[in-house]
Specification:
Blueprint (H helix, E strand, L loop, with lengths): L4 H10 L1 H13 L8 H14 L4 E3 L3 E7 L5 E8 L26 H17 L6 E8 L7 H7 L10 E8 L9 E3 L3 E4 L2 E9 L3 E2 L9 H18 L7 E10 L5 E2 L2 E10 L5 H20 L3 E10 L2 E3 L1 H15 L3 E3 L1 H4 L11 H4 L4 E7 L23 H19 L5
Parallel strand pairs: 3-4, 3-5, 5-16, 6-15
Antiparallel strand pairs: 1-2, 2-4, 6-16, 7-14, 8-12, 8-13, 9-11, 10-12
């Protein structure tokens, strides 16, 4: 390999103005789900100008290939592109210009970082001992983008041998730019959406005896569901059932016909037996409680995302490579987690069940930098001074892993 980690970091730092421009442009114009025309246009234009031939994958994904001039393995680098359907209240001068939408999870950072890595890898394409597949993914927030791109051929042509992702973290009391590397195994929970529709009989608020109140039934269902965690799961089992949205009625003096609840189920059981138990009992409890209050309840589940499984050898590679690049700026996150999975979920988990995968985190600002809120909060802020480091981390990982797997001593 002709380039050192120090030289790659220096090259990445020289890209800072462009990285910041990409990130802030994306931040001003957030798009959600699969509806990402402006975001895709920026990504494909940037890649084309670098000399790539980007192509569509799935409903709204973009992929591009670097290297391939030498025989070898293929490594996948992924960035998600979608934003959240929440209003921004961060106070940033480049805040969202789209009402009700915000890059509140840092996917604008991820996209800019991978574009930077693409530029670095193109400059060192002759040194790649194999192929790097660059993935720009939609719809991560609804857990549909990854399976859609897999179905669209993401992991083939050429076949992917390993996969890497980075996620920025805000609001954590960690030195800016610290890369957290997991130890392997299950590192993030599965997630599944649920929707409960409670139906009664509406009417005037002054005559409840002529109505069947679905709000009362839904409230009791919400409380009864907590019994699953406290009395039906084994103490060592991880299961989180959260109702995040509850809607009923539109006027203070009217009993509505319907009350609805939406939420998530999260577990760390790779076989999803805990999830199956929760789904079964949720349905039984919702329907039983609704019947006790003369209502009916319909329970449905959707958008299942499995646990994230990190490949232990690849995680060991990651710790070595990130230490080479960043020195003490690389940290084994086991010290923070105790080796236990986090409750958050990530749809790159679908890839982790197909090929060896590692998911890492980069500290992108804490209270000292005025980044006091975490992901998905309207006030969350990210320190984009770490963009160049993220680009270098993507690029160095790819270069080093392909080098190692070509059997060439570093």
């Amino acid at each position: 390999m002709n380039i050192t980690s120090e030289e790659l970091l220096k090259e990445a730092r020289a890209l800072e103005p462009q990285l910041q421009q990409w990130r802030r442009t994306l931040h001003r114009h957030p798009e959600v789900g699969f509806d990402l025309p402006r975001t895709k246009e920026l990504v494909k234009k940037a890649l084309t100008e670098m000399g790539y031939e980007p192509r569509d994958c799935g409903k709204a994904g973009v992929i591009a290939l670097a290297g391939g001039k030498k025989p070898g393995k293929t490594i996948l680098l992924r960035a998600d592109m979608d934003a959240l359907p929440i209003p921004e209240d961060s106070g940033e001068e480049f805040s969202s210009e789209v009402p009700g939408k915000m890059h509140g999870c840092g996917h604008d950072m991820h996209t800019a970082m991978l574009l930077g890595a693409a530029k670095l890898l193109k400059a060192h394409e002759d040194e790649l001992e194999g192929t790097v597949k660059l993935e720009f993914q939609p719809a991560e927030e609804i857990f549909q983008g990854s399976p859609d791109m897999i179905a669209g051929g993401l992991l083939e042509d050429p076949h992917v041998d390993a996969a890497v992702m980075f996620h920025v973290l805000a609001g954590m009391p960690l030195p800016v730019g610290t890369v957290l590397v997991p130890g392997g195994g299950i590192t993030m929970a599965s997630c599944e959406q649920y929707h409960i529709v409670v139906k009664g009989k509406g009417g005037h608020g002054s005559t409840p005896e002529n109505c069947i109140d679905p709000i009362t039934a839904a409230a009791h269902i919400h409380i009864a569901l907590q019994e699953i965690n406290s009395r039906e799961l084994k103490p060592g089992d991880f299961g989180v059932l959260t109702t995040g949205r509850f809607e009923a009625g539109a006027a203070s003096n009217v009993i509505p016909d319907v009350a609805q609840m939406w939420g998530t189920i999260r577990t760390t059981d790779p076989e999803n037996k805990t999830g199956e138990l929760i789904r079964t009992r949720m349905t039984e409890i919702a329907q039983g409680v609704a019947a006790a209050f003369r209502c009916t309840a319909e329970v449905s589940f959707a958008d299942y995302c499995p646990c994230m499984v990190v490949d232990k050898p690849l995680a060991e590679n990651a710790m070595d490579y990130m230490t080479e690049l960043l020195g003490k700026g690389a940290m084994d996150m086991t010290a923070l987690t105790g080796g236990k999975p986090g409750g958050g979920s990530e749809d790159f988990a679908f890839v982790s069940h197909e090929v060896p995968t590692v998911s890492m985190f980069i500290a992108a600002g804490g209270p000292e930098q005025g980044c006091c809120y975490g992901q998905h909060h309207p006030k969350v802020r990210f320190d984009d001074s770490i963009l160049y480091e993220g680009s270098a981390a993507f690029g160095w990982f790819a270069l080093r892993w392909l080098y190692d797997n070509a059997g060439i001593a570093f």
